[in-house]
Amino acid sequence: MIAIRNLLNAIWSLLAGLVLASCAHPDHRQAELKVMTSGGFTAAFDRIAPTYEAEHNVRLLIAYGASIGGAPDSIPARLARGEQADVVILARQGVDRLVAQGLVDGSSVTDLVRSQIGMAIPANAQRPDISTPEGFAAALLQARRIGYSASASGTYLAEELLPRLAIYPAIRDRLVRIESERVASVVARGEVDIGFQQVSEILPIPGAQFAGLIPAEYQRTTIFSAGITTSTPRKEQAEQLIRFLAAPRHAEIIRQTGLDPIGIAGR
Fold first, then answer.
1. 212, 188, 220, 195: which is closest to 128 by C-alpha?
2. Which fold has domain 31-114+222-261?
3. CA–CA separation, 11 vs 17, rounded Å?
4. Using alpha carbons only, how large is the chain's radius of gyration in Å?
5. Domain boundaries, the chain
6. What is the pLDDT of residues 104-121, one digit of tens each?
7. How does DSSP assign 35-89, residue by residue?
8. pTM to 2 decimals?
9. Confidence band of 3 (pLDDT split at 50, 70, 90)
10. What is the CATH number of domain 117-213?
11. Mean of pLDDT over the chain
12. Taking residues 189-211, what's their average pLDDT?
């Protein structure tokens, strides 16, 4: 009987110790925030995100996908099939569509950066001058296969810009739509001779080089914006992340990745 009583006392002492320990050492598990970002902002985001995680003790769970275009891993497709996210970052026209569908809170949308379209060529290729319409047309005519993205820049090129050029009948069958990877990666492998995408998506790719912006007369500037999903239970943390991404302190990093920061100083 004494042995049983001693055992029970030992158990109660152990339980009391565990309770006191939990009070003395509260739960410091990292909060988590789910982010979906498109390729145009990826290089900048990947450099800024570790600082945010360290300063705010938040773990960012990141998924990547195109802003538009219908690829299975695009951000709209991910959300449509029920994948969860707290913050999305994509081309403004893609964000606006998600707002119209009730998937993103329109009042949360914040413009982060401006992006322009450039041309990628193999790393060892001679860089052509495509700054004029004539030089641009010559580069297109010399290429056997021309890659373009399945997202915002590629949609503009394939559906608006190229069809209005006089050379379009000669190049139409050379166009290759690239889904779910960087156009510059396909250029680097030699599967297309030249490719077009946002400059920020060309610069980081080994084996390819940025040949230049398409002519100013043909350029289409894309705004990349962040928004908070209507389904998130972490609205306050999501707002904090967006403010962090838009802060002027990150302007130089953003420029280094081929983008023009917009920022929300003082917000």
1. 212
2. D-Maltodextrin-Binding Protein; domain 2 (3.40.190)
3. 10
4. 25
5. 31-114+222-261, 117-213
6. 999 999 999 999 999 999
7. EEE-HHHHHHHHHHHHHHHHHHTEEEEEEE--SSS--TTSHHHHHHTT---SEEE
8. 0.80
9. low
10. 3.40.190.10
11. 89
12. 97
